[in-house]
Amino acid sequence: MSGGLDTTLHAPARLQIAALLARVEEAEFATIRDIVEVSDSVLSKHLAALGEEGYVRLRKAAQDGRQRTWASLTRAGRKAFAAHMAALQELVASAQAAAVAE
Amino acid sequence: MNPNEAAATLAEVDRTEMKLAQRARWPFHRHAMFGLAEGILVAGLAQPTVQAGAMIVVAMALLIVCVSEDRRRDGMFVSGWQPGATRPLTIFITLFVLAMAAASAMARDGGGAEPVGYLFGAITFVICTAASLRWEKIYRSDLNKKARP
Question: Which 3 state secondary structure label does DSSP give A95?
Fold first, then answer.
């Protein structure tokens, strides 16, 4: 992590996954895939990376006779996402302030 | 990361939230089921013990159905305690239900069924259903905001 920016969340798709999970309690794999617009394999890799970092909790549950994967953001994930977003907003705001000052 | 990249990343997050907003639509019966669960809970507290227990079980079962139906229908579950612009309304709903529950429990005289409990339950049903509908609108509009610098 540097200046609030989190290297795990640096990949745009991971940040989008975190942004989605920050606004829901839990989401199913297919729902995340449809909203973030990535392939199954790409989503699996990003979820695994977020899970390894302790940002996302994954669980399997049977539904309509099929095993489905559900993901939720952990407390650490919510904190990292909020800090990353604040750092991004600060970066943009300081650039805008510098442009106005010139 | 430079400011342009940061701005582009924030725009992507906005886009994700807007796509979530498009999916964040719940049918009217979902809101009514939530209102009914709260109404039954409130009405039950004024009734004789056995009836009250049965009504509380029905209310809890309805809430469980609400959550499991959300998951099945939408592939996601959005908690009412979601941080953001909806939080004040969630607090209002909670305090309102607690106040109605207290009023209903106080109306209980330990004897037979208490009609005023049903009145409190009916009021709770209407207010909670309306509040749930409003909650959905606030949630969606919060997701659609474009106020980031």
Answer: helix
